[in-house]
């Protein structure tokens, strides 16, 4: 158990807190109150790792306790026992405020690197920055050096960044990806993609540093957002249509499709559509070559409207009205076809009606009786020659 009255942050020697199996929630909560907000999450994750995996030899992790508005850094290490474990906390003598920042790489060489770089120590305090990072963040070297890295971030991203860098230090990882929003000195917020790599100080093997390679991803993020909105709108348009819609690559691979397309192929052809498959595999073999020719014709920049009859999986027949449209690149400097839009409407009922009317017309032409075909509004749409002969009216006169 823990003596909460013990002023553990004032001692300058190792001390230990004992977490018993029956420790209650109040005990845990009181310990959290001593911690820096983001570090309480780190400590929870650290203990969870032990509980989930029963790892007896977890690497040490560094966390911050808070006292009188300043941070006290300690090393954490779990020591397992039979029925419980000890969390050993060793106060680190050289705190970030006391440690003098030193350059790991000569500034002359560092400034020639075209990528924006920041180097932080294990406390995530910046100890070196190059000209590219200073230009990106609109800050002078004196403003960046010795600043806490999380103070360069938007509030909502601080916790994620702190945890990621902590884990990189714990596991001695390299090329750990991180996407966060950084705040320039001007107040402008930029999206950045950061690669975290942990390196050892060659002059002192005990020291480790994080090299943060920063790339401005603002334009890329905005493009992703626009694409996400476009995809959402496109999907909404797709799914609200009564037609089957597919987007195809120039190799005739399926890039997107709507619910009607999936239902149509499932019900009529007994096939399911999958992203990335060849659209020709969905077409009945008898229609495949003709369909392929239409696709190739559309790839040349032609808009095609075609009607065709397809054999169903149950040996029936279905008519489709099909539209093939080329899709052009958004780059206005070059008119390049990057894909195809294909839509199909089941017109079997319409075709059946047309055939019925054609058969009726054939019979009506040969009969001596006057025959008139009217629409639902009562207007004449067709009359036979006997009607004109008997009444003297032609169709356009009625």
Layout: helices, strands, pairs:
Layout: E1 15-19, H1 25-33, H2 37-53, E2 61-67, E3 70-80, E4 85-91, H3 107-110, E5 116-120, E6 126-129, H4 131-137, H5 141-144, H6 155-171, E7 176-183, E8 189-201, E9 204-216, H7 218-240, E10 244-248, E11 254-257, H8 259-269, H9 285-299, E12 304-311, E13 317-328, E14 337-346, H10 348-366, E15 372-374, E16 380-383, H11 385-391
Antiparallel strand pairs: 1-4, 2-3, 3-4, 5-6, 5-9, 7-8, 8-9, 10-11, 10-14, 12-13, 13-14, 15-16
Helix pairs in contact: 2-6
Walkthrough of the structure:
- With 398 residues, the protein is α+β, with helices and mostly antiparallel strands.
- It folds into four domains: 8-91, Beta-Lactamase, CATH 3.30.450; 107-216, PAS domain (Beta-Lactamase, 2-Layer Sandwich); 221-346, Beta-Lactamase, CATH 3.30.450.20; 351-397, no CATH class.
- The chain has helices at residues 25-33, 37-53, 107-110, 131-137, 141-144, 155-171, 218-240, 259-269, 285-299, 348-366, 385-391; strands at 15-19, 61-67, 70-80, 85-91, 116-120, 126-129, 176-183, 189-201, 204-216, 244-248, 254-257, 304-311, 317-328, 337-346, 372-374, 380-383.
- A hairpin with a 5-residue loop joins strand 15 (372-374) and strand 16.
- Mean pLDDT is 77; it is low at 1-23 and 95-101.
């Amino acid at each position: 158990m823990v003596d909460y009255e013990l002023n553990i942050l004032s001692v300058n020697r190792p001390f230990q807190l004992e977490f018993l199996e029956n420790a209650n929630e109040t005990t845990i909560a009181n310990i959290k109150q001593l911690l820096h907000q983001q570090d309480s999450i780190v400590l929870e994750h650290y203990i969870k790792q032990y509980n989930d995996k029963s790892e007896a030899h977890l690497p040490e992790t560094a966390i911050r306790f808070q006292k009188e508005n300043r941070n006290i850094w300690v090393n954490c290490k779990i020591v397992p026992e039979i029925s419980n474990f000890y969390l050993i906390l060793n106060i680190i003598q050289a705190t970030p405020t006391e440690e003098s920042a030193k350059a790991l790489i000569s500034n002359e060489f560092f400034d020639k690197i075209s990528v924006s770089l920041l180097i932080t120590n294990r406390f995530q305090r910046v100890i070196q920055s190059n000209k590219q990072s200073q230009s990106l963040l609109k800050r002078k070297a004196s403003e960046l050096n010795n600043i806490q890295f999380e103070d360069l971030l938007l509030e909502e991203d601080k916790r994620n960044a702190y945890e990621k860098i902590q884990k990189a230090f714990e596991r001695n990882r390299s090329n750990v990806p991180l996407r966060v929003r950084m705040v320039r000195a001007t107040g402008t917020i930029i999206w950045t993609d950061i690669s975290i790599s942990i390196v050892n100080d060659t002059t002192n093997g005990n020291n480790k540093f994080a090299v943060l390679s920063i790339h401005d991803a603002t334009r890329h993020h905005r493009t992703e957002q626009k694409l996400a909105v476009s995809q959402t709108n496109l999907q909404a348009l797709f799914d609200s249509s009564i037609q089957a819609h597919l987007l195809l690559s120039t190799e005739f691979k399926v890039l997107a499709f709507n619910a009607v397309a999936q239902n149509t192929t499932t019900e009529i052809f007994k096939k399911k559509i999958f992203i990335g498959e060849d659209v020709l595999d969905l077409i009945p073999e008898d229609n495949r070559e003709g369909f392929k020719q239409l696709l190739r014709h559309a790839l040349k920049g032609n808009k095609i409207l075609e009607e065709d009859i397809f054999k169903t999986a149950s040996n029936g027949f279905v008519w489709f009205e099909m539209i093939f449209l080329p899709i052009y690149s958004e780059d206005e400097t070059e008119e390049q076809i990057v894909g195809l839009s294909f839509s199909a409407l089941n017109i079997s009922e319409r075709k059946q009606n047309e055939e019925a009317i054609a058969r009726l017309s054939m019979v009506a032409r040969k009969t001596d009786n006057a025959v008139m075909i009217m629409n639902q509004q009562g207007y004449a749409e067709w009359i036979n020659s006997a009607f004109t002969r008997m009444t003297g009216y032609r169709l356009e006169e009625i």
